[in-house]
Structures are given as structure tokens and as C-alpha cells.
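Worked example 3. Consider a protein that binds 2-acetamido-2-deoxy-beta-D-glucopyranose.
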Amino acid sequence: MHSRAFLASLCVAFTLAASLSTNDFGNFEPPDIVERDIAIIGGGSAGTYSSISLKDKGKSIIVIEKKNRIGGHTETYIDPATGTPIDMGVVIFHNLTIVRDYFARFDVPLITSGSDVDPNAVSVTGTYDLRTSKEVNITSPSQTNVGAAFAKYAEFLAKYPRLNDGMFLPDPVPEDLLMPFGDFAKKYGIEDAVATMFNYNPGLGDILTVPMIENQRVWGQSLVQQLAGGFLTTKHHNNSELYSKAQAELLAAESLLLQSHVICSERSDGGVKLIVQTPAGRKLIKAKKLLITIPPRLDFLAPFNLSAHERSIFGKLIDAGYYTSILNNTGLPDDLSITNYRSDTAYNLPQLPGVYGIGSTPVPGLKLAYYGTPRSNSTYPLSDQQVKSEIVNAIKTLQKANPETFSAEEPQFVEYSSHTPFYLQARPGDTKAGFYREMYALQGERNTFWTGATWRAQDSSDIWRYTEEEVLPGLVKEL
Ligand SMILES: Cc1cc2nc3c(=O)[nH]c(=O)nc-3n(C[C@H](O)[C@H](O)[C@H](O)COP(=O)(O)OP(=O)(O)OC[C@H]3O[C@@H](n4cnc5c(N)ncnc54)[C@H](O)[C@@H]3O)c2cc1C
Ligand SMILES: *[C@@H]1O[C@H](CO)[C@@H](O)[C@H](O)[C@H]1NC(C)=O
Ligand SMILES: *[C@@H]1O[C@H](CO)[C@@H](O)[C@H](O)[C@H]1NC(C)=O
Ligand SMILES: *[C@@H]1O[C@H](CO)[C@@H](O)[C@H](O)[C@H]1NC(C)=O
Ligand SMILES: *[C@@H]1O[C@H](CO)[C@@H](O)[C@H](O)[C@H]1NC(C)=O
Ligand SMILES: *[C@@H]1O[C@H](CO)[C@@H](O)[C@H](O)[C@H]1NC(C)=O
Ligand SMILES: *[C@@H]1O[C@H](CO)[C@@H](O)[C@H](O)[C@H]1NC(C)=O
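Given these inputs, the predicted complex is written out as C-alpha cells:
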């Protein structure tokens, strides 16, 4: 009784702090009350997929997205001069029926990634140590050896088929799944796959110390299988096309609130009530079910009145920092991409925090730069200003150290995006103690369901599969 009264007044206090118009759950007029089967928090990869799938199943929904667009980590820069799109966030998808059907529903054509590259177009990858800006000579394993390493790795994964569907770990959790990935690679003789895994799974933090199970989230059976047939990307190299079409459809169906966020909520066995701040004032949303797709960090979940049990679970998650940007006037040749390597580390891996690499784009003069930090307990303490100056420093040092190849120019950001906190994950001790089993047991409690990268992987195709096969059936059954 006491705690209920306390928390209810907390909600009103929250509301008062944000504006002077007092609101509590009983204080809304009918035009400001929205009733739906499901309220979905976040309109990124997981939230958008969920909304469309539930809509197609005949359910009424409302998506609450804090930004003025949906799409989340899928970001496409459109060069104003030429109209050329550059996917600076999510690029590739798995060639699976669920993926092809989803894109086909919005009439967005897919191709095999790389299949439209002009074979005569010259593009070069340089390997530099971006601390010193000296070129580093790398001896990469042959394609045959890389293939053989992935085949061995696939054999290991085949022992745990449920890992292809989510973090469904055997109990007790085998030590092989908990050991640092660097040790795992040695134990199973798959060293020749490490560099490829690192390059395709940035934002993970340090691949050699991360528990095997966390690298495996992205590098699971499904992604490994794609190595044979090729990844998919959109034909127009404009992955935001799917999201702008979905956004138009959701807005037309009054199923999306942009630039909106939940102020407070009541989640009980009877259903869910949310007070939502929207550009058109406060709304009360009444839903039978809540589907939370945002990163489940305690600070982000504050408006959802977490129970002590929920807090103790999500409070254990750690994350890594991941940043992307597009720059102009870098002084680097248009056809050159640069990978950050070291001559003195295992697998020549770069030191984090640091620049992963600088990629070329189809727009002359524009470069993509990717930056990452190691995993840390409370989000790596690095401001956007620091990340930007580190990127610019790396480029200017490259210019100075290689005056014959790069010209001295003043790099400028034309776009910058922080994807932090990224790759939320458990520490190995917590995983061993049953962290993921407890986290998944929250599905459906207090009419709340969960999906998104933390529940599956930093991989859209896997998120869509997990959402469709593991989350939505249980949710829909209870409606
Ligand atoms: C640079 C980069 C490249 C990537 N490349 C690939 C790739 O090639 N292929 C691939 O499959 N995956 C890739 N990923 C992984 C990508 O993160 C996942 O594919 C997927 O986007 C994760 O989906 P999500 O729904 O969990 O999170 P997001 O897509 O980030 O969606 C979360 C959404 O919630 C919103 N939100 C956050 N807080 C709130 C709040 N309080 N209230 C309301 N809304 C809120 C956000 O604005 C966002 O729209 C990449 C990621 C990055 C950063
Ligand atoms: C994807 O897989 C399907 C079925 O195996 C195949 O027909 C198709 O050519 C592949 N590639 C693309 C771009 O769809
Ligand atoms: C890299 O290797 C090439 C060819 O073997 C050699 O000419 C060059 O000097 C080497 N560069 C460095 C930095 O070791
Ligand atoms: C890319 O997609 C966006 C969003 O749908 C759209 O506005 C833009 O016109 C597209 N551009 C190209 C070149 O495909
Ligand atoms: C907050 O959650 C607790 C359970 O942890 C519940 O008893 C209380 O009623 C909730 N308050 C609101 C406003 O939903
Ligand atoms: C890049 O810089 C050049 C030269 O300074 C300028 O003409 C061009 O408009 C810039 N492009 C963008 C996208 O900012
Ligand atoms: C986080 O905290 C734990 C214990 O509090 C510590 O052992 C660990 O090294 C820290 N860092 C990471 C990245 O987990």
C-alpha cells in the first residue's frame, strides 16, 4: 500500500517537473486518450519490425519514438549535391525469407552486397597504425584458411542449435561459451577467422577478451551461413527507404508518435497505462501489452517503474561505445580506405578506444570514419567532442606522416552519430550464474514484453527472426 502511494505520487512529481500542467492517469480527456492492443517503445530495427508484423496480424498498435524519424541505427546520409545515399549505419542483411519478405512488403529491392561494384573501379585498402600513422604490413590468412576456420567454428556452433535463436544457453553454461574469445579461438584452432569476425562486428569492444558467447551473438549460425552465398543490401544503397515507407504507413494509421517519450507508466496484470509527452501535448496510452525495444539500461527505463527484480537484472548490463561519421576535406585519395592495425598486437588488432577505420564512399571527397571504445561498466566516459577530435587528429596525423600520399587539409564533419551505449551484454560471471535465463523469464511479466539488440544481437536480421519467432507468438496469444 505504502509503496504504491509513494510511486503514484512520484509519477505526478515527474510530470510536474517537466511542465506545470498536472497530469495523473485519471486526468485525461477522451481526445488525449489512445487505446491500443500494444504500445511499442522505440522505432528502430526491432520496434519497426514489431509494429509492422503486429499490424499485419490485425492488432492495433502505437509506436513511441523519441526522434523525429524511425530507423534507429539505420542511418542514410544523402549527399545534397548529387543526391547519392551513403548508408552510414546498418548496411547488410542475411539472405533469409523473413528478410526478403519484409523488404518486398515495402517494395524495396535487395541485391547481394558488392554485386554491383564495377570490377574495373580501382579501390585500395591501406593498413596504418593510426596512433603513429605509419603504414603496417599485414599478412592476412588465405581465403582458403579463413574458410576452413569458419567451417570449424560452424561445427562448434552446431552443438548448440538454440543459440541461433537467442541467448538460450544450456544449464550449466559450458565453459567454452564463457571463455574470452581469444582463448576460444586458440582452443578450437580458428585463429584465421578472428580478423574477419572483428571487422564485421565492430562496436563489440575488444574481441579477444569478450566472452565467446557475446561475439557469438552476431557471429552465430545464421551469419556464418551467409559467408557462402553473400549478404544482402538494398539495391539503392539506401536502407532508410524501408523505414521512411514504414513511417508513412504507421503515421497514416495513427500508429506512431514521433519526438515523443514516456513520462511515467503503470504496468500491472490488468494492462498498461503510459503518460507520453508528444509535440501535441500529453497523451494517455492504454494498452493491453507493452513491448519495450530500447536498450534496457536503468536510466532509459526509469519511466517504466521497474520492480526491484527487473532493476537487479538490467543493472548488470555493461556496454561499449560506437560512433560513426562522414567527413569532408580529409586529404585522402577518393579510392582509398584505411584500416587501423598494429604491428605489435595479436591479429594486428587496433587499440581501443580508437578509430576502427576510414572508408571510401561513392561521393568524391567524402569519407566514413568509425570509432569504438572497449566495454565498460557504466558507458565509456568519452564526449562526442572528444570522439570528433580524436578522429580529426588521426586524419591530420596521417597527412603529416605521409605528405607524399595525403594532402594537408582541414577535415570537416558533414555528419556525426553516436550509437552509444552499444552492444549491451552481461559479464561472464553473471552469465554463468544464469543472467540470460533470468532476463528471458521477464518476457510477459506485468504485461511487458521485450526485444531489440540486447535480447538477441546487434544484427537486424537476427532481431527480426527472434522477434517474430520467440517474442510475438507469446504476446499475441495473450491478447
Ligand atoms: C554503425 C552501425 C552499423 C551497423 N551495421 C549493421 C549491419 O550492417 N547489419 C546489421 O544487421 N546490423 C548492423 N548494426 C547493428 C544494429 O544496431 C542492429 O541491426 C539494429 O539496428 C538494432 O536494433 P534495435 O531496435 O535494437 O535498436 P535501434 O535500431 O537503435 O532502435 C532503438 C530506437 O529506440 C529509440 N529510442 C531510444 N530511447 C527511446 C526512448 N526512451 N523512448 C522512445 N524511443 C527511444 C531510438 O531513437 C531508436 O529509434 C549496425 C549498428 C551500427 C551502429
Ligand atoms: C538469396 O537466396 C535466394 C534463395 O536461396 C536466392 O534465390 C537469391 O538469388 C539470393 N540472393 C538475393 C539477392 O536474393
Ligand atoms: C611492407 O612490405 C613491402 C613489400 O614487401 C615493403 O616494400 C615495405 O617497405 C614494407 N613496409 C613496412 C612499413 O614494413
Ligand atoms: C533514399 O531514401 C530516402 C528515404 O526514403 C528518400 O527520401 C531518398 O529520396 C532516397 N534517395 C535515393 C537516392 O534513393
Ligand atoms: C510500480 O511497481 C510496483 C511493483 O514493483 C507496483 O506495486 C506499483 O503499483 C507500481 N506503480 C505504478 C504507478 O504503476
Ligand atoms: C566538401 O568540401 C568542398 C570543398 O570545401 C565543398 O565544395 C563541398 O560542398 C563539401 N561537401 C559537403 C557535403 O559538405
Ligand atoms: C566492471 O566491474 C567488475 C566488478 O565490479 C570488474 O570486475 C570489471 O573488470 C569491470 N569492467 C568490465 C569491463 O566488466
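Take a moment to read the result before moving on. Residues 1-9, 15-22 have pLDDT under 50 and may be disordered. The first helix runs from residue 2 to 18.
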